[in-house]
Known about the structure:
By secondary structure, the chain is mainly α. It has two domains: 1-53, Arc Repressor Mutant, subunit A (Orthogonal Bundle), CATH 1.10.10; 75-198, Orthogonal Bundle (Tetracycline Repressor, domain 2). It has helices spanning 3-6, 9-27, 34-41, 45-52, 55-73, 88-100, 102-113, 123-139, 149-166, 180-195, 214-217. α2 (9-27) crosses α3 (34-41).
Amino acid sequence: MPRAIIRDPERVRRNVLNAATELFTAHGFSGTSFRDVSEASGISVGLIQHHFGTKRSLYAAVKAHAVAAYLQAHAAETEPAQFDLSSADGLRRLARFFEDSPEHSRLAAWAALEGDNDTWPGEDDYLDRVAQVIRERQAAGRVRPDVDPELLLIAVGGLMRAWITQRRRHAARLAHLGPPSLREQHYLSLCLTLLSPLATRARRAPARRRPRSRKESRP
């Protein structure tokens, strides 16, 4: 191994993270060992453990790296203010997140298969910011106030993830809608129809009558 790599901690971490990302993406957590990462990166197992500790810690670092790399590369598109339920462009930006980050999607798929239900490093911070934008829009009357922001994030994310993962699998069944770009437009229009009731302030529910006490009910 070149000494220049050993003497450069940042280069060591970068080489290990790149190799580990490829391996965890292809084989999952259980199917990847320190020896695999060592052979792929050219870094000794001992040095990998020195920088990352356990395999679980390395796995967490890979997930954090995947989130940070995508958010940095798509800073403008992933600003929380871009989260828009009322336009096809807003939903399309969310769909592109899942499409343009295949490593993130594959790592997430492996995590689900292996029963890893932990949130990813950096994920909660970003979702907190998006949820705050939803609350601000609720206060401004642009999103119904009776909708829970956290549930809304899960629902909308699920709709966009479903399209990215299912559109090619069911391409033959969707052929009657036209070429792929037109199919996506149809899907986004359907999503907007489903979500449109959430983008308007709900009518105030009628005040509930206070139940009469047993004493008041007596003639």
